Amino acid sequence: MSLERFIGHRSEPVVNVVEKGAVRKFAEAIGDPNPLYVDEEAAKTSRYGGLIAPPTFPRTFDYGEVEGMGPPGQGFIHGEHRIRYERPLFVGEEVSCYAEVKDYYEKEGREGNLGFLISERVGESPEGERIFTMLDTAILTPAMRESLGL
Amino acid sequence: MSDTKPAWRVGDELEGRTLPPVTRLQLIKYAGASGDYNPIHTIDEAAEKAGLPGVIAHGMLTAATMSLLFSPYLEHGYVKELKARFSGMVYVGDEITIGGRASGEDESEEGRVYTFEVYASNGESAVASGTVDFLVFQDS
Question: Is B81 in contact with A82 (Cβ distance < 8 A)?
Answer without folding.
Answer: yes
